[in-house]
Structures are given as C-alpha cells and as structure tokens.
Amino acid sequence: MRLICDISGLNEMQRKLIKAADPAKITRAVAQNTSEMQGRAQDLCPVDTGTLKRNIGLEMRDGGKTGVVFATPHYSEYVELGTRFMKAQPYMEPAFNAQKDRFIIDLKKAAISDL
C-alpha cells in the first residue's frame, strides 16, 4: 500500500502551467522537488536496520510531469501511521509537507519566466 498526498487545486494550476510554461522547465521542477522529497523522507525515517531508509525510492511518470516517492518495505506504512502496539513515526507526510510549498513556488516560477 502506498501513502497518497494530494494538493488541492493542482489540476487547475497544471492546466495553466501547461499553457504558459516551457515543458522542460516544469519537468526539471518536478524532478528536483521529487528528489528533494525523497531525501527528506530518508532523513526523517527512523533507522533500526536501515532497510526502510535504503528503500525509499522515487519514480518519474507521465514524461516527467509526475513524481512519486514511495517506500517498498512491507512494514513502511506501519512505521508511518503506527499500529495499536506501536506509536506512529511519520517520515513521508512530514517530507511532503516540507516540500509542497517549495514545489508550488518552483512551478509558478517556471510558468512566470516564460510569460
């Protein structure tokens, strides 16, 4: 199972950006912010054996317009959300929250620079 975070209004912003911006600049902004979020998630995840940290990956989709950060160990969501026996130790959501404002700013800059 993967954790999914959503930024509201992204579809409208995406349509405007596609009309206004150089696709290469948008792709670079997505790649940069996806990479930074992956690094933050790795920095924030708790380390016991290091397996979780080593297995936080990223994937670019839709020709670089979509970036996905994910954790592959079967227990990753238990660490993130906790269980009735274990306190949550979030790493993905804080990484997302730390990155989202920067990502929006970078996308706007990419669009504005071409107007």
TrEMBL record:
It comes from the Bacteria. InterPro entries: HK97-gp10_tail (IPR010064). This is HK97 gp10 family phage protein. It comes from Dubosiella newyorkensis. The lineage of its organism: Bacteria, Bacillati, Bacillota, Erysipelotrichia, Erysipelotrichales.
